[in-house]
Design goal:
The protein has ten helices and no strands. It is an all-alpha fold and 223 residues long. Keywords: Membrane, Oxidoreductase, Transmembrane, Transmembrane helix.
Length: 223
Amino acid sequence: MSWLSDTLTSTIGRKLVMSLTGLFLIIFLVVHLAGNFQLLAGDGGVAFNEYAKFMTSNPLIKFTSYGLYAFILIHIVMSIALAQKNKKARPVGYDKVKGSANSSFSSRNMGILGFIIFVFLVIHMRSFWYEMHWGSIPMDSAGNKDLYKVVSAAFSQWWYVAIYVVCMVGLAFHLSHGFSSAFQTLGVNHKKYTPFIKKLGIVYAILIPAAFASIPLIMFFNS
């Protein structure tokens, strides 16, 4: 197993793991967004509650969820390890002005943006995931846990909606660099394909977080 330890302790290996887990999470965001749009179905939450029950009771989905949680933790651990290693390797007198000119805001602040997303995940999972599994949630007319009521209550509070939207802005910046960076780490670096991947990454980084942010905003102004 020495090859595994060598991979996980090397810069290239850590970047590779971060890229693979990051791409998995990028795909997950699209799936999760599709489910969240059930909140806007206008049926009093029936569709969303059925979706929530399916996501928490289907054996295959539950197994995939455990993999998701593991990938999130691995992604965070690898990012911290890389940040610490880069900090130690960086010269003391590093020219910040020159660094700013040669890199984007997102690439220079991936650690801070990642921390914002992590805080959001803790709040988000405590508010909804924890409540769905162990909270005292009443049943809806179809006999499912009425998670829609919990979400509606949260999204009726301006401060919660504000935190959600701000975190989605942080996610957008994080994705704007992480999307193309993941492909580059995996070796997809070609004069023909790289510009397209970068443009696709920017479009993705704008549309997906904006779509997520639109849901609490719509529910807040309609409440």
